[in-house]
Amino acid sequence: MTDLRLGARIRARRQARHLTLREIAARAGVTESFLSQVERDVTSPSIATVQRIARALDVSIAQLFAEEPETGRVVRREARRRIEYPGLKAVDEFLTTNLAGRLQVIVSTIEPGGGTRAEPYTHDSDEEVVVVLGGVLDLWVGDEHYVLREGDAITFPSRLPHWNANQGETTTTVLFCVTPPSF
After folding, report:
1. Higher pLDDT residue, 3 or 148?
2. How, if at all, do strands 153-157 and 127-134 pair?
3. 153: enclosing H helix or E strand
4. What residue ranges do the domains of the chain occupy?
């Protein structure tokens, strides 16, 4: 797979499994029309919706974007796997190499007005650590709202519903560490 667009990758995975739009849409809890728009990159789904689509395809989000099996220990900046979410104004870069490992580290760049939207999502992981490397991040975990600034960190169970937003005027850079990997 060489196309890095989210929609093209979803379509390629769906077609490789000989599944219809209707089948995946039903499994993911979205309409066929919406899934078609996602596959054509007409609309950008929320992170929670991407997770549901990935689950419907029996893959993790990371596997959805994997080019080939990863080996080695070093991830060079220019070789990082990237997921771009244009509608969410965010880009994720994976800093760990092995999806089968026990830790997943992602650096996320979130533009002003971006984030995972107000649709809470969860991970099939045990724990998550969030470290703000630059800017300000609004983070909601369960019913709690946190404003995290550069250098701030928070740890929480990944199974709690959570979402984030950059409500500031500058780009926010965040390090996410999840164990075990699920994203």
Report:
1. 148
2. antiparallel
3. strand 153-157
4. 6-59, 70-179
Name every residue whose Cβ is closer than 8 Å to that of residue 109 and which is 6 or more positions away in sequence. 90, 91, 93, 171, 172, 173
Look at 152 and 41; give whichever has higher pLDDT.
152
The CATH homologous superfamily for domain 70-179 is Jelly Rolls (2.60.120.10)
Choose among 105, 138, 140: nearest CA to 119: 140
Residue in the block written with tokens 């994720």? 92
Q: Please give the average per-residue pLDDT across 34-41, as a whole number.
A: 92
Per the structure block, which two tokens stand in for 82? Answer: 């990237």
Beta pairing, strands 90-94 & 172-179: unpaired
| Domain 6-59: CATH superfamily, name plus number | lambda repressor-like DNA-binding domains (1.10.260.40)
